[in-house]
Write the structure tokens for this entry.
Amino acid sequence: MVVFAGQGDARRSMSLLWRADRPEQQDRRPGPGPRPGLSVDAIVAAAVAVADEDGMAALSMRAVGERLGRTAMALYTYVPSKGELLDLMYDAVHAELPTEYDDTGDWRAGLTEWARNGLEFHLRHPWVLQVSQARPVLGPHEYAGLETLVRLLNATGLEAHLLRRLVGTLSHFVRGCAGTVAEARQAATVTGESDEEWWFARSALLGEVAPDFAERYPSLVAMETGSTPQPPDPGEGTVPYLEREARETFDAGLGVLLDGIEAAIRRAGTPRT
């Protein structure tokens, strides 16, 4: 399920996103109305908890209200609709991402740490992966994350037009790998079958249904034959097979991407340490 941000009222969303750290306006009116203690931040935190625990499909103003012990109508005083709430949720969780890295030394080490932090961030909040990147939220914490990545890339000395593309490449790479790991974690629960059971049952049948498999796909077979998978670490017994594979792909792919950046630096003639 893909969800598009920015579907609420533009002015209300942007005003709520950029509250400029003003103290929350608690309800001080006498008589009927929302009880003191409810705030935009409390609503956003409850919504994030709902999405973290039950997924994006479970998110509704009613579900958030129930978590806070309020009715859905009580929330609308603070957040106009689910559209604005999604924008606030998305930007709020991005505040977890570190913004302080050593950008004066090894740019490769900095980008490696940034990518690993990003992977774990998306695994803590897998619903974020369902928010389309086609239309950004344009919130302060989202911008802080971009500022951090650009600052790390600036240490390469590459020109701005290339840095812009590298921002997209690295961001899509991290999100893509995180999506695979997140799905690997869900697969056994949703299907009731472990990764090992699923693979062994189907791979064993290939010899029956495709006895000429090696002749039809020689490059694939040669790659698999030449690859010697490491046996699972006993300490990783609870980690699904597909998740281990996805994490190894992340490490290998990130290394190749950073090698490519090094090659671009050499071509540009502006080597940096």
In short: The CA atoms of residues 125 and 164 lie 26 Å apart.
